[in-house]
Write a structure and sequence with these properties.
- By secondary structure, this protein is α+β, with helices and mostly antiparallel strands.
- Helices cover 35% and strands 32% of the residues.
- Helix 2 runs parallel beside helix 4.
- It has two domains: 59 residues; 144 residues, no CATH class.
Length: 210
């Protein structure tokens, strides 16, 4: 947007002559300044976030997670989903959580976890009604999650600080509702499994947590 300023002068033949000078209007100038200010701050924020993420990753302990004999696990049954895809989602979700927990440990240390069994929260039951036949994972007070794994925790020189070849965890806390209702409420679908991991980790590594 521009404002116009007209100036009247005589031309050589004596006829009126008009020429127009274009000046940037005040609103457009303000808008341009605001856009530059916003873009500058977005750039600075992006750089700050990237630096923080890089710093966090650089200071985190190395975490390695292995999944052993998945076909023999007690319960990772898919509900109205492709089994292989469901298993991958479960393993990816818990692997990422192990790594998030490992970020609390000293950067030069290493945590190796080998998952040997998993029984995710709830039990699978058929649903009834007018809809097509399907199944749903029901959460209740007796269908608690359980998992087994081995772990080794070493320092920068490879010295073993802690290890256990057979850790067995269960969450006896109350579960209620369905997996669908848990997801709808915004709760992580692996909330109960991760809660088991959190409690064990905080107790096991209390002396090492940053």
């Amino acid at each position: 947007m521009f404002d116009t300023v007209e100036t009247r002068n005589g031309c050589p033949q004596g006829r009126p002559f008009f020429y127009v000078t274009l000046l940037p209007s005040e609103p457009s100038y303000r808008q341009s300044y605001q856009r530059r200010w916003i873009m500058k701050n977005i750039t600075m924020l992006t750089v700050a976030v990237a630096a923080a993420l890089f710093s966090a990753n650089a200071l985190a302990a190395e975490v390695k997670v292995e999944w052993k004999d998945v076909d023999s696990y007690r319960d990772i049954e898919a509900v109205n989903d492709i089994q292989s895809r469901f298993e991958k989602q479960i393993m990816d979700g818990l692997t990422e959580h192990w790594k998030a927990l490992g970020a609390k440990l000293p950067e030069d240390h290493k945590l190796t976890v080998t998952m040997t069994d998993l029984d995710i929260a709830g039990r699978v039951e058929p649903t009834y009604g007018s809809a097509a036949s399907s199944h749903m994972r029901i959460l209740d007070d007796i269908s608690y999650p359980a998992m087994s794994f081995a772990f080794t925790y070493t320092d920068a020189n490879g010295n073993v600080i802690a290890e256990d070849a057979d850790v067995r965890l269960k969450d006896m806390g109350g579960n209620s509702g369905t997996m669908r209702s848990a997801v709808r409420s915004g709760r992580d679908s692996l909330f109960y499994e991760k809660r088991v991991m959190d409690r064990w980790f905080d107790k096991q590594f209390k002396a090492s947590i940053n």
